[in-house]
Each structure stands twice: as structure tokens, then as C-alpha cells.
């Protein structure tokens, strides 16, 4: 059986591209969850590693009878760097939010530019077709 359907190269490319993009979009939540689960597991592993070190080293360091003043200084030092690092984590999250907004804005600007260019291209093609009677 012969089909009378007219094919257009633009329709074929657009249709196939749309199918792929929709498939990629449908995978976004799954991909984010997978990455999130892996990252949480990584962080949990590091926390467990330090917990294991704590258990292994506690008896050793307890037997050393380290002066309480030194331990207080170490505690203060540790808290200071913990606070600095916590602030860096927050700053990085803020940076990612800003970066995401900037990239999204840039993408939207490029989309507008591409539409203007495609409109110009369509006009040129139309003028060319009229001129040469396609």
C-alpha cells in the first residue's frame, strides 16, 4: 500500500528532536534523585569514616592525658574552621543559585535571538523561493 503522506525534512528533524528532548526532560527528576542519593551516600561514608577513626583513636589519645587547656584551644580552633567551612558551603549554594539564574537568563536571551534569526532566515528563504519560483 502506497502512502500519499508528504514528508518534510524539517518536520522529520523537528519531530525527532522533540521526542528526544521530551525523553530527556522526563528523566530530570530521576537523574536528580540518583545524584542526590549518591551524594548523600558519599557524605554518610565520610561521616562514618571519621566515626571509625574516633573509636580507633579515642583510647590512644585518652591515655596521653593531654592538658585540658590544649584541648580547649583545639576545640576552639576546630569550631572556628567548622564555622568557616559551613559559611563556604552556604556561599557555594548561593553561588549556584546565582549561576543557575544567570545561565537561565542567558539561555532565554539566546532563544529570543535565535527566533529573530530564524524569522530573518525564513524571510530570506521565502524571498529566494519567490524569486526562483519554487
Short characterization:
This protein has 134 residues and is mainly α. It is 88% helix and 0% strand.
Can you describe what's shown?
By secondary structure, this protein is mainly alpha-helical. It has a domain at about 10-65. The protein is built from three helices and no strands. The longest helix is centred in the C-terminal third of the chain and has 65 residues, at about 70-130. The two termini are about 30 Å apart.
Which terms summarize this structure?
single chain; 134 residues; mainly alpha; elongated
Q: Which helices and strands occur, and which strands form pairs?
A:
Layout: H1 9-26, H2 28-62, H3 68-132
Radius of gyration: 30 Å
Structural class: mainly alpha
Overall geometry: elongated
Total of DSSP H or I helical runs spanning 4+ residues: 3
Would you report the number of β strands? 0
Amino acid at each position: 500500500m502506497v502512502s500519499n503522506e508528504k514528508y518534510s525534512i524539517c518536520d522529520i528533524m523537528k519531530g525527532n528532536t522533540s521526542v528526544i528532548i521530551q525523553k530527556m526532560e522526563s528523566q530530570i527528576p530521576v537523574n536528580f534523585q540518583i545524584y542526590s542519593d549518591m551524594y548523600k551516600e558519599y557524605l554518610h561514608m565520610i561521616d562514618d569514616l571519621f566515626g571509625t577513626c574516633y573509636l580507633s583513636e579515642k583510647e590512644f589519645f585518652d591515655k596521653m592525658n593531654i592538658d585540658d587547656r590544649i584541648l580547649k584551644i583545639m576545640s576552639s580552633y576546630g569550631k572556628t574552621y567548622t564555622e568557616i567551612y559551613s559559611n563556604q558551603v552556604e556561599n557555594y549554594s548561593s553561588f549556584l543559585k546565582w549561576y543557575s539564574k544567570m545561565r537561565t537568563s542567558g539561555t532565554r536571551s539566546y532563544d529570543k535571538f535565535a527566533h529573530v534569526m530564524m524569522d530573518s532566515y525564513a524571510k530570506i528563504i521565502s524571498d529566494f523561493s519567490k524569486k526562483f519560483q519554487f
